[in-house]
Specification:
By secondary structure, this protein is mainly α. Helix content is about 40%, strand content about 0%. The chain is elongated and about 70 Å long. It starts with a helix and ends with a helix. The mean pLDDT is about 75.
Length: about 80
């Protein structure tokens, strides 16, 4: 019985401390200033298959040409355009 009480109290303490709000900071960015957008390197843009029109059957991406390094520049370009 004592073990159950200890487990329940430990669980309650864990839940209460995990739900504590994050401390507020004074260093917040002003809302009227736009965030800086990082411009990807020209080398990554030049040979990025995600930024080209897909000339494949059913217009699907050429998965065999895509590397993980291609995703971040493609996301940045897409977010700038939209």
């Amino acid at each position: 019985m004592k073990n159950i009480v200890v487990i329940l109290l430990s669980g309650t303490l864990l839940v209460l401390t995990a739900c504590e709000p994050a401390p507020e900071t004074d260093e917040e960015a002003p809302a009227d200033e736009p965030a800086e957008i990082a411009v990807p390197d020209e080398d990554l843009l030049a040979d990025n298959p995600l930024l080209e029109e897909f000339i494949t059957p059913s217009r699907v991406p050429p998965f065999h040409l895509i590397d993980p390094k291609h995703f971040e520049p493609a996301f940045e370009v897409a977010m700038e355009e939209n």
